[in-house]
Structure to design on (167 residues):
């Protein structure tokens, strides 16, 4: 296993719509192992493949580790939000936007479908931090970053400062 370098804004791969994974081979499994190690190393609660420069629909999430110090690792290939409801506010950061946090409204509950590392279908219904992480990571697969989720007032307050922050 190895720790991968995390792409940061404005890397182009972060703005691309990622491609569906068509086969789960040894190379993909290696990528998954490396993404997991990279996520823990960076103390993130989730990581999407485009963040390590691979434009594929693959995410890893572990919100339990941060909250309870125990593993709650979830790997989802080709994740899809099939149902969402409610609204929940919260503060988010992103490993691709270092030193940046912002309040983002998300759906309170999401129902996600995809496949696991063995190619079996997975269905996850979630709320709370896990739901937020799912929505954040799936956004990455569609080329959407936190800064694309800001409301007009947040954008105005931030104009200029964000780029300076990341120079
Ligand atoms: Ni992120």
């Amino acid at each position: 296993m190895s720790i991968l370098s995390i792409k940061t804004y404005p890397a182009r791969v972060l703005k691309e719509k990622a491609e569906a994974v068509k086969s789960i081979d040894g190379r993909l499994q290696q990528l998954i192992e490396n993404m997991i190690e990279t996520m823990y190393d960076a103390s993130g609660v989730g990581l999407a493949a485009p963040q390590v420069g691979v434009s594929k629909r693959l995410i890893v999430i572990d919100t339990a580790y941060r909250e309870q110090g125990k593993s709650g690792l979830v790997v989802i290939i080709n994740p899809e939000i099939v149902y969402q409801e409610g609204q929940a506010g919260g503060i988010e950061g992103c490993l691709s936007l270092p030193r940046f946090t912002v309040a983002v409204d998300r759906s309170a509950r999401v129902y996600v479908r995809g496949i696991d590392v063995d190619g079996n279908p997975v269905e996850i219904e979630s709320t709370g931090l896990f739901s937020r992480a799912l929505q954040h990571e799936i956004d990455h697969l569609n080329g959407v970053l936190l800064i694309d989720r800001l409301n007009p007032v947040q954008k105005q307050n931030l104009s200029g400062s964000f780029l300076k922050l990341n120079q």
